[in-house]
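Milestone M4 deliverable, item 7.
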Amino acid sequence: MSLGINTTTPEGIVLAADSRQSYRNRKGMARIGSDNASKLFQLNKRIGIIVTGLAFLPEDGVMKSISKFIEQFKRDTEVEKLNVRDAAERLHSLFDIKYEWQKRLDDAVKKINYDFKRQGFEVLEVKQENYMIKFRYKDLQGNLKNGIGGIDVITLLVAGFNKDGSYEVYTCRIPGEVQKKRDSKEKGKEYGASWIGQVDVVSRIVLGFDGRISNLKFVNDTVREIGQTEVRKQLGNLQYAIQWGTMTLQDAIDFCTLMIQITSAMQRFSDGIIANPGDMPGVGGPVVEYYGIKVGIAKEVTPPHMLRHSIATHYLNGGIDIRKIQHFLGHESLASTQIYTHLITDDQREERNKLHPQNRTKRKLI
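Output delivered:
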């Protein structure tokens, strides 16, 4: 599933994602396929894309990676002429056709009917509504049950600068809609963060809750009593008051990286929530970032290896042990990490050695 995050600040835009790729096997079980997959793509010098959800789609009877469709889109389209909204709408249209989601939704309805009847349940209603499947049935004891199902979703986050220097951020859900998240020309939408994919941990940290709160009985009872608008308003008081408009670009990079690393750690140490255990640990592998700097006009999105390079050099200059940096970058060989040391001058190396824990004066407790 993966996790993708965008943070937009006065200094620029950051896009970040993990590198884990998962898939469903023939039994429908989620499996980890790779921890080195690309989820971030540079559409042109001004616009970047994050993709989460389905990693493969069939074309002409062959399963192809989502990245192949994006690369084909870049070859077939004059991408340098696109503004951010055009890019979002065209990519949404492309995957809306390629996914054939309506057929998958129809098949899911048939499967729900078949599975319930096979178990001896009385199916009262199964219907499609807003790209989801709602159903009602009676179990073997005659108890009335309600449920919601659906199909796997492809989600895109498209962010970047237009030719006039303005910027926008959009999310695209397939099946679903295109939604504007950030707009430099719209008051109240200039700065902030958006996330797609396995977002429950980030949502809990920043918002104070995640979307599954709507599954709790007391929440539904409260919605019926005071209305959904008032419930959302009161829950909004749990959100951290983050001053996105004062963030530097480095702050944004640190925030995105931290959220992905925390999500990966929580998935490692937990098995989902008590109400719904067995979550797929879909976030993992190295964190990759793109960033675009806004200084009067749009600047080129920096390739992820350049950012990793600068971070590694920064850590070395700060006295961080090289083996810790090796682990952070996900390098199997220490020799790969040592490549980054060539930017450290003799003066910097001397300063770094002074800061290294092994060379610091030992203090005694008294």
